[in-house]
Amino acid sequence: MIDLRSDTVTKPSKGMLAAMMQAEVGDDIYGEDPTVNQLQDKVASLLGKEAALFVPSGTMGNQICLNVHAQPGDEVICESDAHIFHFESGALAKLSGIQVHQIPGSAGMMSPEHIEKAVRPSAHYYPRTSIIALENTHNMAGGTILPIEEVIPIADFARNRSLRMHLDGARLWNASAASGIGLHEYARHFDSLSVCFSKGLGAPIGSMIAGSYDFIAEALRTRKQFGGAMRQAGYLAAAAIYAIDHNFPRLQEDHVNARIFAEIIAESPALTVDLNSVMTNIVMFYTKQGLDAYQLAEQLKEEGVLLHAMSTDALRVVTHLDVSQEEVTQAAQITVNLLQS
Ligand SMILES: Cc1ncc(COP(=O)(O)O)c(C=O)c1O
């Protein structure tokens, strides 16, 4: 099987497992796990933030950050296809009583004008707008990179209006590797952000949130309330350290492979793909002429290719470190050939 459903399907390499086995550990709820502490310091410094906190998943990372920034009844402004809105099981409503104000974006980016309009006036009968949340890269837009020059005016606006800026940076590594813009250059425009080790970097488990000392002190309490505080988590932190050191520099290979896939399937008269949207390791493509995407995904499975149908006419492919360029090329050719037959 060539598994292109997600970059979350990777398994730890031998080198990563060896690093995990050798990890020094302690009780992290007492702050005594040296490997967790090392990872937190390392990521805080990479992101240019005062402090960072290791959490089990990207979802928990986002949910903790948003919970700390808002009160029940408050509103978070986000793009209408944001992960926090569609794919976190309604956690904002359930765990924090926060409601979402969605704004349609272009390639995952909301315009400052739309955001400005969405911020509620201060009358008591409106919900209070507390947070603007962005996602970089943007998953549903096809791994698009949010242009930093468009993020800056939004951050300036948020500061002037005392709104918090949160970044779902599950794949910020990819944005930075592809654009050449440093992680800290992106991070400096946000009060909080989450990054994941279990996606393109290939670690089995784990994410990090980062922000000011005060923010992380509060997040520590919320992580415990959400059940995300761990004990000898150093084994997982060792995998994340290995992932940053060995797999961050190779993300470009995934980006090249995604482009190869997109260029091959662009030749098929039965599919459309916007090659300009293929900026990192995700390819969103669409069926034409009423061809059912779910059915196509099932047929491809029989041919040995796994990918995700996202709706009746949309499919997603994600490249990662457990698929080679040959396999990605083969998967694209199988797709095109199937549609020819
Ligand atoms: C953009 C984005 N944010 C957050 C998450 C959540 O990460 P996790 O699956 O670790 O909860 C994902 C997962 O795919 C994602 O794509």
CATH architecture of the largest domain, please? 3-Layer(aba) Sandwich
The hetero compounds bound to this protein are: pyridoxal-5'-phosphate
Calculate Rg over CA atoms: 20 Å
By CATH, the topology of the largest domain is Aspartate Aminotransferase, domain 2
User: What would the principal axes of the Cα set say about the shape?
Assistant: globular
CATH top-level class of the largest domain: Alpha Beta
Mean pLDDT: 98
**Strand percentage:** 15-25%
Q: pLDDT below 50 for ≥5 consecutive residues: which ranges?
A: none
How many domains? The number is 2
| Topology pattern, helix = H, strand = E | EHHEHEHHEHEHEHHEEHHHEEHEEEH
- Name the strands of the widest sheet in spatial order: 2-8-7-6-5-3-4
Notes on the protein architecture:
The chain is α/β, with parallel strands linked by helices and 341 residues long. The protein has two domains: 14-247, Type I PLP-dependent aspartate aminotransferase-like (Major domain) (Aspartate Aminotransferase, domain 2, 3-Layer(aba) Sandwich); 250-340, Alpha-Beta Complex (Aspartate Aminotransferase, domain 1), CATH 3.90.1150.10. Helix content is 43%, strand content 17%. The strands form three sheets. Strands 2-8-7-6-5-3-4 form a seven-stranded mixed beta sheet, with helices on both faces. It is globular, with a radius of gyration of 20 Å. The relative contact order is 0.17. The chain binds pyridoxal-5'-phosphate (PLP).
Q: Summary?
A:
It is built from 14 helices and 13 strands. The mean pLDDT is 98.
Secondary-structure blueprint:
Elements: E1 2-3, H1 14-21, H2 34-47, E2 51-55, H3 58-69, E3 75-79, H4 83-86, H5 91-96, E4 99-103, H6 112-118, E5 129-135, H7 148-160, E6 164-169, H8 172-179, H9 183-187, E7 192-196, E8 207-211, H10 213-225, H11 234-247, H12 251-265, E9 271-272, E10 282-287, H13 293-302, E11 305-306, E12 308-311, E13 314-318, H14 325-340
Parallel strand pairs: 1-11, 3-4, 3-5, 5-6, 6-7
Antiparallel strand pairs: 2-8, 7-8, 9-10, 10-13, 12-13
Helix pairs in contact: 1-11, 2-11, 3-10, 12-14
Bound molecules: pyridoxal-5'-phosphate.
